[in-house]
Amino acid sequence: MAKRLATAYVKTQIRLTEAEMMEFVQLFKKHGIDIHMRVYDNGSHVVVLEEGKDQEVRLSFEMEQEHYVFEGSCCFHEPALANAMRQAISQFRGSAIVHRQYVNFTMEYWYERGTVVRIVERRAGGAERVVYSYNNHLLELEAVFRRTDVEANIERLREEINRLLDIRRTLDRSDAADVDKRLADLSRQLFVLEA
């Protein structure tokens, strides 16, 4: 198995309440990570994660409408730190683009509201391969449901059927065959759209 060189959180956003901020800190402590917090007069917090002897990662949380919001990037070389951050993104429904960097390739993970929605493998030569892509079928169905063009087509078909029925009433039986064929075709289309 390839050895991970680093994990870079490129575009990261986490939004925490005060209680969740304490849970966030405890999550890192549970992984044995030295963590301390600096609180500023404006309510902002800087979470400092110790990585190795002389390295630290700072996460600046700005106070916005009673929530602590981190928007930015960070890079971890220690697997325990990267794993804790992954759990934090998931638990607190954060969004992020994460690059797990290996010698000859990078795995790119896209998180939205704590869920992995896309994984892409990027090779050193520029080749890329989509490993996983999440499709939210419920959202797709809602979008189809909200579309009004189907209703407009149904209304247009009904008007055309009514117009043809009016024309058919004025025709002889021998002349009505073409209109009947067109009415049958429009009825099938209407049935499909209403289904």
TrEMBL record:
Keywords: Coiled coil. It comes from the Bacteria. Residues 147-174 form a coiled coil. This is Non-ribosomal peptide synthetase module. It comes from Insulibacter thermoxylanivorax.
